[in-house]
Amino acid sequence: MSADQKPLGFIYQFAAGAIAGVSEILVMYPLDVVKTRIQLQAGGATGADAYTGMVDCFQKIVRNEGFSRLYRGIEAPILMEAPKRATKFAANDSWGKFYRDLFGVAKANQSLSILTGATAGATEAFVVVPFELVKIRLQDKASAGKYTSSLDALTKIIKNEGPLALYNGLESTLWRHILWNAGYFGCIFQVRELLPKTDKKGMQTLNEMLAGATGGTVGTILNTPMDVVKSRIQNSPKVAGSIPKYNWAWPSIALVMKEEGFGALYKGFIPKVLRLGPGGGILLVVYTNVMDMFRRMQNPVA
Ligand SMILES: *[C@@H]1O[C@H](CO)[C@@H](O)[C@H](O)[C@H]1NC(C)=O
Ligand SMILES: *[C@@H]1O[C@H](CO)[C@@H](O)[C@H](O)[C@H]1NC(C)=O
Fold this sequence. Notes:
- The protein has nine helices and no strands.
- The protein is mostly helical.
- It has one domain: Mitochondrial carrier domain (Mitochondrial carrier fold, Alpha/alpha barrel).
- α1 packs antiparallel against α9 (269-298).
- It is globular, with a radius of gyration of 21 Å.
- The model has no long low-confidence stretch (mean pLDDT 88).
- Bound molecules: 2-acetamido-2-deoxy-beta-D-glucopyranose (2 copies).
- Pfam families: Mito_carr.
- InterPro entries: MCP, MCP_dom_sf, MCP_transmembrane, Mito_2-oxodicarb_carrier.
- It comes from Mollisia scopiformis (Conifer needle endophyte fungus).
- Belongs to the mitochondrial carrier (TC 2.A.29) family.
- GO terms for molecular function: dicarboxylic acid transmembrane transporter activity.
């Protein structure tokens, strides 16, 4: 990755981000299935079919139900996550160039990386809000009988609440993505600076894995409270003439903290960080490698 090479265009960044996103899901999805199985197993389950831990669960699923069971239901996450990850990386690179030109500098520094990540996060938020809204509505227990599928939910929300309702929760989603991406790209910059430079391919991969996983973990620590209030804001249908209990992001955080305590803001943190920490590392490793490959394809002699 030498700086003297001609930068690749948006379409390459977008493609590399999409490939990184799909790879991350292919690796992490089976873990998600295993996690769900263990969570669903009633306490004190015994017998040959009971899972004693993650590895045991993994082996039993493969042995008793077949390998493909580990990938059941993966279509929806791929369709939803790949465009998100593609937007994330392409937006980071494009905004990075914009800010370098704006400030007239040749290289990013720590504050510029955080600013670039934050702006990329805001861009990403516009892409994801409608997807997130439909997902939250479908996942809510109370809405079980209300919608039959994603498409049904989408149609009903537009018909009953108007197309703008799809952008319900835009503000909290903006904050959620601004915080995650500022943490992610900001940490990647910092960790890359701190780690010793190396020419060995294996060490480079390890460094990138470490930088990305740190970024993913810090991003998740920063944005989990926003995720909690975003779900609540998006799950409150707009009723004319009344102000919803959860309306704006930061006041909602204060309200949750007052009514339920600080811990409530970190609901669901452990499974999230177990996914997004290592996942952030995989994303970065695949993204950098695919971009390097694109560069070599364009510049075979370089
Ligand atoms: C994000 O963009 C900046 C600025 O263009 C760039 O230096 C950095 O490498 C990008 N981060 C990643 C993880 O691609
Ligand atoms: C990073 O670069 C910008 C633009 O040149 C500058 O304003 C800012 O102070 C720099 N930040 C650090 C931490 O050096």
